[in-house]
Design a protein that fits this description.
One of its GO terms (molecular function) is oxidoreductase activity, acting on the CH-OH group of donors, NAD or NADP as acceptor. This protein is an alpha/beta fold and 278 residues long. The chain has helices at residues 18-29, 42-56, 72-85, 114-138, 162-184, 219-232, 241-252, 255-264, and strands at residues 9-13, 34-39, 61-66, 91-94, 144-149, 190-197, 236-239. A seven-stranded parallel β-sheet has the order 3-2-1-4-5-6-7, sandwiched between helices.
């Protein structure tokens, strides 16, 4: 069981802002040897690198790569550069994500929302992990971690975010299966943590309303919970606690009863009506 990231190489996708930036700060504060930042926004990435460099004061090497993870070919090229210039990461945080919302599925723009959402949220973590997992498995002397940031939306269908919910459901299914495969193969040095938070106050879900028992989450609280779970190798993080309860209720209640009591009664199905996003 690892208790710190001190001396580790940490790669974070979607690292220029929001939760990705906060994970990078946490890695630096705990003495990571290197923090590797992937993001498609070159300008924001540059500002974040400058901020993190001032915070690190040379104790942690900061490496940045402009990568659009929707481009699966770019993932392979960038991963090769990371291995050559920095080394294989010990900790991978698949954080990058996009959301399209506030429109019914048939009103979205003829597939142009669907394709990038599935590529970034579902396919990219698989391709990125496939690039770095062999190196993690080969290093039996250091524990490794893979953190997959999914969403409560992947556990429960919700109006006005059909493709987003589908992408996160795919991510959850793959992440859980990968964890089980590693355990069956007795690769005990690599642990996978799947994270399913409700709405987080980063601006990504601006306008969304937290349902009853699932208030909008504070980003710092989420980072702290995810980080601690990652270090101890916990398989699942559900935030808030009501996300776990909704999964249980979805399994035991008839569909129409669940729709009426939880979906409509607790406001889950109305939570995206005022969504504007960033």
């Amino acid at each position: 069981m690892t208790r710190t990231v001190r001396g580790a190489r940490v790669l974070i996708t979607g690292a220029a802002s929001g939760m990705g930036r906060l994970y990078a700060i946490r890695a630096i504060d705990e003495g990571a040897a290197a923090v590797i930042l992937w993001d498609r926004d070159a300008a924001s990435l540059g500002r974040t690198v400058e901020e993190l460099g001032s915070r690190s004061r040379g104790r942690t090497r900061i490496h940045s790569f402009v990568v659009d993870v929707a481009d699966l070919g770019a993932i392979a090229k960038s991963a090769q550069k990371v291995r050559r210039e920095v080394g294989n990461p010990d900790i991978l945080v698949n954080n990058a994500g996009i959301v399209r919302g506030n429109a019914y599925f048939w009103a979205t723009d003829n597939g142009e929302d669907t394709r990038p959402t599935m590529q970034v949220n579902a396919l990219a973590p698989m391709y990125i992990t496939r690039e770095f997992l062999p190196g993690m498995l080969a290093n039996a002397y250091r524990e490794a971690r893979i953190v997959n940031i999914a969403s409560a939306a992947g556990t429960l269908g919700n109006p006005r975010m059909a493709v987003y919910a589908a992408s996160k459901a795919a991510l959850i299914g793959w992440s859980e299966s990968l964890r089980l495969e590693l355990e069956q193969a007795e690769h005990t040095n690599v642990r996978v943590t799947t994270v399913t938070p409700s709405y987080i106050d980063t601006g990504m879900f601006e306008g969304a309303r937290g349902p009853f028992l699932a208030p909008i989450l504070n980003p710092d609280v989420v980072v702290d919970s995810v980080w601690k779970a990652m270090l101890r190798g916990a398989p699942l993080v559900q935030l808030p606690w009501s996300v776990g309860l909704s999964r249980v209720l979805r399994a035991v209640l008839p569909t129409r009863v669940f729709d009426r009591v939880v979906g409509n009664g607790l406001g889950v199905y109305r939570s995206m009506e005022r969504f504007t996003g960033r």
